[in-house]
Amino acid sequence: MKVLVLEGGARKSGNTSTVTGWVVEELGSMGHEVERITLQDKDIKGCLACMKCKGKADEVGCVIKDDAISILEKMVAAELVLFTSPLYFWGVAGPLKSLIDRSYSLYIDYHQPTHASLVEGQRQALLVTGAGPWENNAEATFTAFNRLQRPHMAVKAGELFIGRCAAPEDLGEGVKKEAITFAQEIGGAS
Ligand SMILES: Cc1cc2nc3c(=O)[nH]c(=O)nc-3n(C[C@H](O)[C@H](O)[C@H](O)COP(=O)(O)O)c2cc1C
Predict the structure, then answer these.
(1) What is the per-residue pLDDT across 17-35, written as a single tens digit (0 to 9) for each?
(2) Smallest CA separation from ligand 1 atom 4, residue
């Protein structure tokens, strides 16, 4: 399966990328073809809400010609997309939020019988790390993610929150096992 990992965090050896690394390793050993993109390194502007993407369902219709276009095209080609991010103020980090906002250009006619999406049927998963617990902290991020599949016409493949993170070197064997189980869950179908 073609897997695209869209990483919202800036720290290349941080908590999120460490856990993501374990997930990617397992997906690779399952035979999946995985590409990781650090969104922080890319030029991804915010959605203009110009609505010029609406009316097009055969290509990425966004008019802002920055790095988001090729990333969204890779997203269209992927069978599984894994979004990863540190938790920032009860949401995902800015670069990932911007990319998700730009994914507005992947579908048309939401809530109408003519609703169509370039990522229809795609499997999507979310991995988030945070310093705090799940309660009163991480829920809203996962609620938003669980709603993203509706306009995208995608399928939720799984979710993983690793809370109470300190330093990456303190992430223990238990977290590694959770990451491996998560990879097996999201990579299960081909
Ligand atoms: C700007 C900023 C906002 C944060 N907001 C939250 C938050 O709302 N909840 C939380 O649990 N942790 C929060 N944290 C902590 C990070 O989510 C946590 O340390 C995470 O594991 C860091 O991941 P990284 O090492 O991949 O950067 C915040 C950190 C930063 C820098």
Answers:
(1) 999 999 999 999 999 999 9
(2) 88
